[in-house]
């Protein structure tokens, strides 16, 4: 990396950002250039060139200017409450800088800056005045609430009780907190203030912390960066609020705003909840950031993977292809265990600093570490061997799989923070330039269109908006019919596989061997055409315990293979059905609304406008089902019972524990010391009954997931299309207002808009060249 080149690019980016800010200011000073959001009387989302939209764009560009001035790369961490976001940040930093509680913990965005030499974390909260004002309001409101009444609406735990005492006594928040415990106390209090404010009906001052310079920030040395050569620029993590944390739905907007101002985004996903509704909201938020911001994903809780779950490659393929629609590259997705990574880091730090671990009775994390690293049977004596503990901590860190993302993301970001900041700035500049150029072109065209034509287009557009609202119900009914047809096909598919499974089970227990599949199957080769027991046996009797154990293993293996075959067949069939549903729904929406789109485009073109109106894509990311996981959950090998008496010990007790059964099918058996029995009839009937139950569970899961996904997709689709029509309507009304000025005023306005159009064209070209130069440096190997 060439330092001089980076410096020159930094200078160029600063120049272009200043020009863009001046351009926005000039646009504000042009009469009729800024849109009036309420001009149409409709409730429309904030427009880019309304007064609020211009201010938002100014804040975004100012933020980019601050980042390149400081050469700061901001890596935004986003995830749902239960995904383990705080634990992940602690694992990345290598120290416990954020508290963990089983409730929302990120009411306000928080910055964590890598500061070499800062061994103890320090929290700075310079913009504390809005919180102090909030505390005063809450103090007044609490005079009208008894503790009993308050307890009906909020949990009065120890933390909340301490906060209430602080409010009543008028204790202020400090501007600086040194050490983990004071930081925890501050951040927990801030989050509890959000909960308390909602209960007492006092608005929490979220807007006061919209600017990134106003949020609290922590300075600490990241353990994984300690000792590395000083990188080019400053690396900072941004802990963002998850969607709907603390029961505050507007945090979704705050999340989107913070992500738009980040240099890169790291999504923390829950391996056990990859297709949940909350995770889908996070995926939608990070997809909206666009191609200008690098996206990464840590799939947390991978330590909960079992032998039936998706492996690393399957997880990467699922997230990259199906859930994120290609927005994240597979090599940017890392399955990890944040808890193991955090515990390993903390143990290694304690051992390095003090040579031993704290008393596990005083600090619970030591117990968690010992159980994860040493096993469930660890004893206090095991914590005395420091050398063994260091080795166990190193192995736990290796098992956490955190080393790869630390190297790929953290080290690269540290080494090239200034380049990440530059790339972010160049993409924000390009987005601004393209959006502004399209808007100004539309406005310039509007000045050359007669007032009558503008009024006619506005009336036609209003008619189309009303027609859209009226036709929405019919479209939703057509969509629901398609969903019903698909669900019927799915149910028939599931029923067919149930029958197939039942026949295979009947065949196996009748013939004593697996049925043939009709095609080569490597999974069945070890026992292909091997007979496990005599055909038509109803009960097996063995005199040797080892023989009984081997027989049960053979029967269980055969049953697992039968279920696996069914799972594979079902997966293949559903893999074709669900993408077809998404395609059909997109076609229904396109066919129904294309006439509206065409009328709007034709009407504007007849009036002299060149427009690019496109229907939004129908997004139904969660239509994909992890069919293998559903199948395994419904018909899992451990649910297959085997005949055994009620005994805690011996071979029969062991077999019962294997199969999660206590006395199935053996209540009347006469056992001797030398005979062991397996009731095949009861085993077969139990397995068949379980297969029959599986269909209902699978159909319910499919129906719930598809209905939820389609409902969310339709809502987003209509909201996007309505917003596009609203934007056009507001722009046409502004053009009509401009046309009603005098001819001299009209000519002056046209010249001003043309000057703005020319300058934004030059800005766009320079921003494109800047982006290309920066991308060239990214392609070069690091020194």
TrEMBL record:
Record flagged with keyword Phosphoprotein: no
PROSITE patterns, per the entry: G_DYNAMIN_2 (PS51718)
The entry's keywords: Coiled coil
Coiled coil: 10-71, 732-766
Record domain Dynamin-type G: where: 69-407
Membrane-crossing residue ranges in chain numbering: none
The UniProt record lists the keyword Coiled coil: yes
Identification of the protein by name: Clamp-binding protein CrfC
Species this protein is from: Siccibacter colletis
